Amino acid sequence: MKRLSMLLVALVAGCASVEEPKLEEPKSKASAEGAAPKAEAKVYKDYKAAMQAIWALRGKDKGAAAAAADQAVALAKTPDEKSEALFCKGDLYWNGRGDVRQGKFGLEALQVEGISARRRAASVSDLVKKYYPAKGKEGFADAEKLVAETLARADFTDAFAIVQVTTAIAGLEFDNFQVEKAEQRLAGLEKVKGVNLFDVIRARADLAVRKGDFAEGVRQFERILKDPKIGGNRWSAVESIVKLMNRDNRTADAVKTLRAAQADKTIAPRHKEVLVAGALVPAYLTLKDYQSAAAAVAELRATKVPENDKGYPKEIEQKAQELEFSIAVAKDDLEGARKLVLVSQNAKQLGDLAGRFAGRGQYAKAVELYELWWPMQPGWTSWMHIDEMKGAVIAYWRAGKRTELAKLLGETVQNMKKVDAKRKLGCKIAAECFRTGKLAKADVDKIVAGLDPKLVRDGIPYGAGLLVEVGLYEEPKMLGEMRQALFVHQPRNIAPVRYVANAPTDAGSWFASGLMTSENRNVSNQKIGKEAAERLITDVNVIRGGKETGEGAKAEEIDSWFYVCYDEHGVHLLFEHNDPKIDEVVRGKTRPTDYEMYLAIGEGEQVYQFGVNPLKRQFDYCPDWNSPHKRFRRLSDYADFSSRPTPYGFATAMNISWDLAYHVLPENGTEWPFEMIHWSRSGGVTWGGTDIWQVSNWGHWKFEGLTDEVKAKICRVLMYKALARYNAEKNIATGGVIGKWKDTELGDPEFYEQCLKPLVEKLDAAAKDAEGEPDDATVLRLFAEVVPQWYDFRYYASELRTKYLSERFVR
Fold this sequence. Notes:
Elements: H1 5-10, H2 29-33, H3 47-57, H4 62-75, H5 79-91, H6 100-111, H7 117-131, H8 136-151, H9 159-175, H10 179-188, H11 197-210, H12 214-226, H13 234-247, H14 251-262, H15 269-286, H16 290-301, H17 312-330, H18 334-344, H19 347-359, H20 363-373, H21 383-398, H22 402-412, H23 421-436, H24 441-448, H25 453-469, H26 474-484, E1 494-499, H27 507-513, E2 522-524, E3 526-527, H28 530-537, H29 555-558, E4 560-567, E5 570-578, H30 582-586, E6 594-600, E7 607-612, E8 639-645, E9 649-657, E10 671-679, E11 684-686, E12 699-703, H31 708-728, H32 737-742, H33 749-768, H34 776-785, H35 787-791, H36 793-809
Parallel strand pairs: 1-4, 1-12
Antiparallel strand pairs: 2-4, 3-11, 4-5, 5-9, 6-7, 6-10, 8-9, 10-11, 10-12
């Protein structure tokens, strides 16, 4: 498999919300002559218009939304309107971290004279749910105080408002481990005059579910069914009971509840229809009782039509057909589902079933359905539609309908009104490749000529992603290089990586090595700004709670640097940082600072992401972005590190074995992209750039001194490791694949004789050349010819096994 990891990071993920370097664009006349005058704030005609603007602008322009809120406050005609506008202004700043502005305006909203109990309850409950939780124990105490004061007000007698506020604080009490207190609060609500018991029971049931007590949740909702005096939607209670029973693996009980609801005369026919379609049939499918599921659909079709609802029969028939499709799919009767969908022409079902056929390699049938599905799409506006489209691309490609695919991407997609410009451009680029079978830079230049550089930047990754989906890799690589050329490239930091015999492997040996000179020191001093840090905090792959930007960081806390060298065993690093609170850290009174690092084992090669906490002897995190194969091994299996305190902070030594990159060993002058963030308690700093998510900002390790003699030393170590791994494959007791396939009971002797034995004999013969101390020329020859097969023999064996089975059973 070709090298895709960096390609996918740079191209397919290129549309993610990360900061991009500025594009080289011509300066406009306005920018040349000075900044344009600031646009005047929009004036709204009335309170309603201003409030609508707040919601429309809050995700686009927070300043404009706040200005609209100020106008709403001024335009308000009642206390409730003024209070609501103030609260909405504060809510603009909600970010899950307790922004002081949210609290300020939220509390001001409560100070407006004459507001109703329900308006007060809405503000209090939102503050309790959103603002106070982020402030920890202090926020919890403030929330309880605010609720107590609110409930004690003489004018706070509205039952609905009381339930709303009490439910909110009970949830916060639950989060703060005061479960019994929360339960008692909710139970006490049942005594409030004029309360709607349905709302109280739902709140009590929800709290039970949060405890994981599904049975108690069911008991609470069953009270609604048993007592006709309790108001509320009885069918909604049935839905809740069924969901909880399903979560508690009580699907058979859920069916009984649903059957009873069908006979309940107090539940309207339309609600029964919802229960049958949304709960009863799915429950039967869970139980694999397809006959009962079909009977339930028949009952649904027999539902009596209300005289005043002329559209009801059509709705019933449509839902019945959708359920029949679900039953066919659940039974794995794809042919039956196909017959149904060819009649219904249901777009969602067409896409679903086409994807299932494609997943089984039945591409011709998938294309048949996709041909019906594709014209029904007004455009792809969500990730679900986009994924379906990618499935269609793969099916057409595998079915050999590449000309048709090019036409669809090049014509049909271009005419879809809801498809955005960047995806249209990406489809157009991919279509050109599918049409001709190849894609040259000149072809792309013609397509993007005269287009906005930003559009080209955003469209190229989408087109490259479609090509990767069908197994093309050279074209996406070329597209990635074209895209990179659109950016203004800053000079990269370069860290020379030199050969050192008997290189240091721990902090002590580094200090004694004489290598820690100013010439070899690489300093991290690029502060992460607020905007970049916010994007890093939202990275789903790494938890960065509490991390700060570097804008106000203290120099004595953020100073950090690293040294790097290599020997025949691997690459060796030492990274250090200052920490004025080192004594408190060692004693466990203060958290340590830590590192977030990125390493690519060559341009366009696998990217590794990992975190190091100096107090631990293992990675803080080291996500596996791939499954192990011939070109990828887990970093955590081939790296180790250790730390020790120094008089000024911490020093951490890390060693990375050449095993990790034996297939792409560096040559003299080879560069490996590398970046690190030192997250101190007061800010983050990087080595190469303030926004390290753009790979072009990373610094580089540059290997020096890699003579033929040094390379032979590295290859010699790896050769003997590979030979040892290969010999271990002969031992069945330790899971060796050679021993397994030779075994008459556990393996397949016929496969061994036909496929594996010739390879084993070849590798055994080569092993004789490795005996003793072969010269460098022999080592380099064996490294090129057989070391990959020795090292990763089981992957080569798996390929032979796949080929053997395909030839024997698949025609």
